[in-house]
Design brief:
The chain is mainly α. The chain has 11 helices and 3 strands, in the order H-H-E-H-H-H-H-H-H-H-H-H-E-E. A 3-stranded antiparallel β-sheet has the order 1-3-2. Helix 5 packs across helix 6 and helix 6 packs antiparallel against helix 7. The longest helix has 25 residues. The N and C termini lie far apart (about 45 Å). The relative contact order is 0.15.
Length: about 280
């Protein structure tokens, strides 16, 4: 996509998807590179590695809680959702006390069921939140996204409005990993032979994750049309940690319902299973 798609009669992914000129998701290459430069360090292998060990510990706690509660469990609710929220908030620099509120805004923005007005209200509120957070981080030497954006604003490389728009976009994209990993585990849990092979051969998991993260087609197009020119590091890290934790830590993990009973959400701009009932 580029700014040429703005204000033209072209097919939109959803009825609510109406891009505005100057929106952070639509600049052409020169401007796009300028906007990305300020936060690129947070999404490199080194930047993601900064939160990898803490992410592993948070995931272990979630899996332990699921095991303690006993089967059956909804894998999306118990592990996948909370984990993706925790990881993106770590990368963004959102304090723990604020994470539930940011998560609520994100789900309202991604869901089409409350209507466009509710989604836009949530987007404005999240924007105001990140405006304050980034403003507090001006001059910071931190490595999280809010700190990097605050420093970029201080150097006048981006405007505060641009920084806020980018932060909102990154937060939403980060939480959408819940749906991506939900689709990945739907594939694994409906193919027991593949799951057993990955348990027996951990050395092939990294290559398997690359394949499992490929987008799955849907009857109706959703989201933004994009082709990744290089690896999307946070998503890969989350997927690898989840595969290791759940295949090794829950050896008998399997669907608790027939595969045909697993339903995918219809009221969201990015789709994944509504729930993944599992037992072990």
């Amino acid at each position: 996509m580029s700014e040429e798609t703005v204000e033209r009669q072209v097919t939109r992914p959803t009825a609510r998807f109406d891009p505005v000129r100057g929106a952070v998701g639509f600049p052409d290459p020169a401007d796009h590179v300028r906007l990305r430069r300020g936060v690129a360090a947070a999404f490199t292998a080194r930047g993601v590695g900064r939160v990898r060990e803490r992410s592993r510990r948070m995931l272990a706690e979630l899996v332990d809680e699921m095991l303690q509660d006993g089967p059956p469990a909804d894998l999306c609710e118990a592990v996948l959702g909370p984990f993706s929220v925790a990881v993106i908030c770590e990368l963004m620099g959102v304090p723990a006390a604020d994470r539930q509120g940011v998560h609520t805004w994100t789900r309202q923005i991604l869901s089409s069921s409350p209507g466009a007005e509710a989604g836009e209200k949530a987007r404005r509120e999240m924007g105001a939140y990140f405006s304050d957070l980034i403003g507090l981080r001006e001059g910071s030497t931190g490595e999280d996204v809010a700190s990097l954006l605050g420093a970029a604003v201080g150097r006048e490389e981006v405007t505060l409005n641009e920084a806020v728009a980018l932060a909102v976009l990154l937060q939403i994209d980060g939480e959408a990993v819940t749906d991506t990993c939900g689709r990945m585990f739907h594939v694994l849990l409906t193919r027991p032979g593949l799951t057993e092979r990955l348990r027996a051969q951990p050395e092939i998991r990294r290559r398997a994750v690359d394949e499992l993260l490929r987008p799955l087609p849907h009857p109706d197009p959703v989201g933004l049309s994009r082709i990744a020119g290089e690896d999307a590091m946070p998503v890969r890290m989350e997927a690898e940690l989840l595969v290791d934790a759940l295949l090794d830590g829950v050896p008998g993990l399997r669907l608790a319902v027939p595969a045909e009973d697993v339903r995918f959400g219809k009221g969201s701009l990015i789709r994944g299973p509504e729930a993944l009932p599992v037992t072990w």
